[in-house]
Amino acid sequence: MPTFSRRSFFKLLTATAGATLIAQGEETTNTTPHTKNLLPKNEKQTRVVVVGGGMGGLTVAETIKQNDPENKIEVIVLERNAHYFACPMSNTLFADLKELKAMNIAFSFDYTQAEKNHNIDVIITEVINADVAHKTLTTTGGTINYDYVVVAPGIDYNYQKLFPTWDDTKIRRAMKETPAAMYSDSGREKQTLLNQLHEWKAQGGEGYFVIIPPKGGKVRCKPASYERACMVSAYIQKHQLPGKVYLLDNAPKPQAKGPKFIEVFIKYHKESLIFNGMSGAEMEKRIQKAGFTLENFMKKENFSKVEDLFATCDVTDVDFDKKEISFTYADNFDDEGKAQSVNYAIANLIPYHRGNKTAELFDVKRDKWGGIVCAPNKIYSVSDSTLYVAGDIIGYHKFDPAAQTAVSVGMLTGESIARRILKGTDSIDLSKAGITCFSMVADQPLSAIEISKTIKVDDQGVAQAGSSKLDFREGMGLIGWYQAVIETPFKY
Ligand SMILES: Cc1cc2nc3c(=O)[nH]c(=O)nc-3n(C[C@H](O)[C@H](O)[C@H](O)COP(=O)(O)OP(=O)(O)OC[C@H]3O[C@@H](n4cnc5c(N)ncnc54)[C@H](O)[C@@H]3O)c2cc1C
């Protein structure tokens, strides 16, 4: 069992029910549509179909059953991959942390325990069409009817927005050679990057491991690129490689947990990490030039002056044959910028994010990002009150796309759906959700940055972050959080 109680994070779990059938399939299914009925409906139960067995979808599915003691609700999860690779904490794989090995931490899960422990069905199939008027989904394995549907497909990448002139061939090269490793693909992209890192080391580890964070907008786990930079830097130090991590960011500070990451870059990664052309020593010099010290520069009023003196690197193109990245380098707030380029040994190019294209199959209102627009104060679509959403795809509300959000809001949603079906009351208190996000930032000593946020709901019924707290934590805190929040839906 996890060393942390999940209850301590959410205080929402109730008892679970019995076991049911197990469905298995290929890692990613083919997309030939079938017209056969995927699973005939049991008329005695109300059917909830969940699209996507990730952090949001699986949490909603399990919580519905935890609140259905008389087994009146049938819950079916449709997931296209037989194995789920958890993103949170996966950046620590880049640092090859001994603690993870010692504690037997897993990142890849199948759905057998979830089915057995929670009396849900997980069918490995891809949803390829949706007819909301007739409450019918088409999948690669057949069609399926529902009474309620929960749409939880996560994110996709938006390379076109980043490089409007790139054609599909160039985008394909980017995905293959410089993978973003930010979405759910059973861990393929992350494995590619890890393989590149290990090959780089075997060849002497010279040059740059370049990381390009998304240029802004709604992003799944904004701190993840900076956490990854710290973990690669820890690997470089551990193996005494001559190379460096090079962050090319269009913002003058990390776009999440900014002052704390700068402090970490200076404290733990001075020689092995470059942020926008600045080493840790250079950043320290600029902080002092602004009249501050390492102790007081993080204060809000001081940091705004410090970041004006920091550089930005706005990436404009990549030449995959020459392994060269072009960018506009601006040395401080007033600088218009000049064209520069850098050659990479490895590049992790992270484009803009967008809502997963699966959401487009459903004829309901979506926002510009691709999120499904919820009704005020609700977690179902403004166009269709039988269509719920979970995880990163939630629109209207201003949640950070993160696993903790997916799980925390997912538990409230699961309870609410069960209550609606069993008791006819349609209520949800989104202010009960809470957000905690950890980033592992060093391995000697194992250290993390934690941000926790409360959720408030405004008078338009929009749920959003309320107060927040940012602090350093021992790295074991992140491992405990991972076991409690991420492993639990798959293992217990
Ligand atoms: C490197 C990294 C680090 C992170 N660290 C943290 C962290 O420390 N803390 C934190 O809170 N969050 C973190 N996150 C974010 C977190 O992983 C996501 O926000 C979370 O997984 C979102 O859950 P979701 O259910 O919306 O999507 P996902 O977990 O991506 O699940 C979506 C599922 O839907 C399936 N799917 C999609 N389309 C279909 C279809 N048509 N048919 C069938 N199945 C489909 C996918 O295969 C996938 O399994 C991190 C993310 C990354 C990439």
Describe the structure.
The protein is an alpha/beta fold. It has 2 domains: 6-154 and 356-491, FAD/NAD(P)-binding domain (3-Layer(bba) Sandwich); 157-352, 3-Layer(bba) Sandwich (FAD/NAD(P)-binding domain), CATH 3.50.50. It is built from 13 helices and 24 strands. The chain has helices spanning 6-10, 55-66, 98-102, 112-118, 159-162, 168-177, 188-202, 224-238, 258-268, 280-289, 300-308, 403-423, 475-491, and strands at residues 46-51, 73-79, 84-85, 108-109, 121-124, 127-131, 136-139, 142-145, 148-151, 155-158, 208-212, 244-247, 273-275, 312-319, 324-330, 338-343, 346-349, 352-355, 372-373, 387-389, 394-395, 434-443, 446-457, 463-474. The strands form 8 sheets. The chain has a 5-stranded parallel sheet. Strands 13-12-11-17 form a 4-stranded parallel sheet. The termini are close together. Residues 1-31 have low confidence and may be disordered. Residues 51-57, 78-81, 84, 87-88, 90-91, 126-127, 152-154, 182, 184, 220-221, 224, 356, 358, 391-393, 401-404, 406, 437-438 line the site of flavin-adenine dinucleotide.
Structure described in brief:
The protein has helices at residues 6-10, 55-66, 98-102, 112-118, 159-162, 168-177, 188-202, 224-238, 258-268, 280-289, 300-308, 403-423, 475-491; strands at residues 46-51, 73-79, 84-85, 108-109, 121-124, 127-131, 136-139, 142-145, 148-151, 155-158, 208-212, 244-247, 273-275, 312-319, 324-330, 338-343, 346-349, 352-355, 372-373, 387-389, 394-395, 434-443, 446-457, 463-474. The chain is an alpha/beta fold.
